[in-house]
Structures are given as C-alpha cells and as structure tokens.
C-alpha cells in the first residue's frame, strides 16, 4: 500500500502542552509523521475536526491519579480521512480514503483477559489518544488501523466527533444499566455535554427519562430531546423525594451519573428503586463514593462503573446518531480557541460540546 495519492506535508498546526502543567502552545511547525515512518498496523489520518472533552482538560492539567505523556498533543474525538497506511500492514479493516474516527481508546491488545471478554477499554496494554499517545489537536494523527472507527455515511464529521466520546460513554452506560423498555432512568446533568446525548439515547431505547439540571434553557432543551419529566435541582427543596414522586413514588430503575461531585452518587442510593442500578460515569480526579451500606444491601442496589466503550459500542452509538436518533448540540471553533474552551469547561459555561475545525 502506498500513499502516492495523498500529499503529506512535513509540518502541521498543532496544540502542544510542552511539559507537566505547562501552558498550551499553538504551533504551526509541528512535525507530521511521514508515511514511510509508519509502523505496520499504523495509519495516518488527516483530520477534518475534533471535539474537545473535559478529559482533555484533565490531561492538560495532569490532575488525574495517572499521568499523561509530555510533550502532549491532546484530543480524542477526531474525524478525518485515512491518507496513509504503514507498509506491511496486514488485513487492515480500513483503506486509503476511508472516513474514520479517533477515539479515547487508541489501541488495545485484543488478547488479554479484559480484551477477550469485550472490555478492551480496560486492556492491560491500552493506549489512549491525547493521553499516552498524541491525539487529535493536530491536523494529522497517527493511529492503529485495527482501532480507528468507520464513520457511517450521512453523519456529519462535526456531529460524529462528540459521539465518539461523549456519545459512546453515555450510550454504553445506559446499555448496561439493567433497564428495559418502559423503565425509568434518571439523568442528573441532563442538559450538559454528556447529559443531552444520554437523554436521546435513553429515549431511543424506550426508557422514560427524568432529567435533572437547572435553568429554563436546559429544561426546554431536554424536554425537546425526549425527556418525560424535569426537576430543577436549584428549585427543589428535597431532590430525593421529588425524584421518587416523579417516578411512580418508587424511584427510577437506573441512574446514570456523569457529575464529578460525589454528592450526586450518594443521593442515587437514596432515590433508586429497590433492585435499581447506579451507573458511575463521571471522572473526578480524587472523589470518593460513599454509599450507605445498609440501604445498598436492603434495597439490593447495583453500583457499576462504566468507562467509555469498546469498538462495538462505538459503532452502535454512531449508527444510532446516523439514523437521526441522537443529535449533538455543538459549536464549531478554530484550533486557536482551545485555551478559551478549556477555561469555559473549567467554569462550566460551555453549552453542549465544542468541535474544532482542523483544516482551516
Ligand atoms: Zn472524551
Ligand atoms: Zn488487551
């Protein structure tokens, strides 16, 4: 396989975090790995766009218990075209010209026990885009042919970008929440980046959605997207009682908690219906989950962690979006807006998701 069809520049625009805790730098002379330098199994993707995720902020600040590489090119919600494939690559599932997504899980060995059980996102040898390997805040990115995600036709690249992380994450959490059609699911933070996608996936799965957030703008959004009921957490006097009252008096069958504060997890034990499931999705750097043991036992509550998704989850989440069942609310910005986007994410002022145009 050769790359003769595509002209690959030597340098590119990229957002680089030079050192731990260092200031983000937008460079226009960042090297592009040339097709001749690609290892077997690697491919070079020319990016159309990439989403910005709260995880990128953690990676840039290096405030998680596990450190990111430095210098670091962050980003893990990229969509673009395969423009080169490493020589001697065998059985590549993608070919030159294919439109693919680059997601958080850049590589898994497919052979360790978690991988063999379909839990490749916790592979013992996993590599993560924009964390352990350079990610998508550059015009070209190197990834693995086995793990780039084909993007369905008809789904805009800018739409697919946020589905690759936010969409996959909430989709999988709902899929494994032990719920069935007609069950109640509560979604704290329903009007946020992950939450507004969760509302739509839950509704598409036939679940009854109780959305929790604050403000009339978010209320109107989530009700339009398919929520059946709404609670404004700033207006309620007793959130737990109001949630139970809204869900037949018994509480929801499941809660998908994407918040980063531990209170939101503890409350779920109180309001969940007996036999209910708490899906722990939010990723605070150092939070603790204090579950009341007595009620966890006597209500037979399931507490499950859910972390992004495997390659199959990604395809399913994209497919549902391509069929128009889940739309992302996002704003398109240039790469130079990355720093201000981080500041907005830190303050919680970003509505929906931000997608960066990488080819302008
Ligand atoms: Zn993400
Ligand atoms: Zn593995």
UniProtKB/TrEMBL annotation:
The protein's matches in Pfam families, at most eight in alphabetical order, are given as: ADH_N, ADH_zinc_N
Give the EC number.
1.1.1.1
InterPro entries with a match to the protein in the record:
ADH-like_C, ADH-like_N, ER, GroES-like_sf, NAD(P)-bd_dom_sf
The keyword Metal-binding is annotated on this UniProt entry:
yes
Keywords recorded for this protein, A-Z: Metal-binding, NAD, Oxidoreductase, Zinc
Its domain of life reads Eukaryota
EC top class named in words: oxidoreductase
PANTHER family for the chain: ALCOHOL DEHYDROGENASE 1-RELATED (PTHR42940)
Specify the protein name.
alcohol dehydrogenase
Q: Which gene encodes it?
A: ADH1
């Amino acid at each position: 396989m050769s790359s003769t069809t595509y002209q690959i520049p030597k340098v590119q625009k990229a957002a680089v975090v030079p050192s731990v805790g260092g200031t983000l730098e937008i460079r226009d002379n960042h090297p592009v790995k040339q097709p001749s330098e690609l290892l077997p199994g690697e491919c070079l993707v020319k990016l159309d766009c990439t989403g910005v995720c709260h995880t990128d902020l953690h990676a840039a600040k290096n405030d998680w218990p596990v450190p990111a590489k430095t210098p670091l090119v962050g980003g893990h919600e990229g969509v673009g075209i395969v423009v080169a494939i490493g020589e001697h690559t065998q059985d590549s599932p993608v070919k030159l010209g294919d439109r693919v997504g680059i997601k958080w899980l850049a590589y898994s060995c497919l052979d360790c026990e978690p991988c063999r059980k379909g839990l490749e996102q916790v592979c013992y040898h996993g590599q993560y885009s924009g964390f352990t390997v350079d990610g998508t805040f550059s015009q070209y990115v190197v990834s693995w042919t086995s793990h780039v995600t084909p993007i369905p036709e008809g789904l805009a690249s800018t739409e697919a970008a946020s589905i690759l992380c936010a969409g996959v994450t909430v989709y999988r959490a709902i899929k494994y929440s032990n719920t069935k059609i007609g069950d109640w699911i509560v979604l704290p933070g329903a009007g946020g980046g992950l939450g507004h996608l969760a509302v739509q996936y839950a509704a598409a799965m036939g679940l009854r959605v109780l959305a929790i957030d604050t403000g009339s703008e978010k209320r109107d959004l989530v009700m339009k997207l398919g929520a059946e009921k709404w609670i404004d957490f700033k207006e309620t006097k007793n959130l737990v009682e109001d949630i139970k009252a809204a869900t037949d008096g018994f509480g929801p069958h499941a809660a998908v908690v994407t918040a980063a504060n531990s209170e939101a997890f503890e409350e779920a034990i109180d309001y969940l219906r007996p036999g209910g499931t708490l899906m722990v999705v939010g990723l605070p750097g150092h939070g603790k989950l204090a579950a009341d043991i007595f009620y966890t036992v006597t209500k037979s509550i399931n507490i499950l962690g859910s972390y992004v998704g495997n390659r199959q989850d990604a395809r399913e989440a994209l497919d549902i979006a391509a069929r128009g069942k889940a739309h992302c609310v996002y704003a398109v910005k240039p790469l130079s807006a990355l720093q201000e986007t981080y500041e907005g994410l830190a303050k919680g002022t970003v509505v929906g998701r931000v997608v960066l145009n990488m080819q302008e």
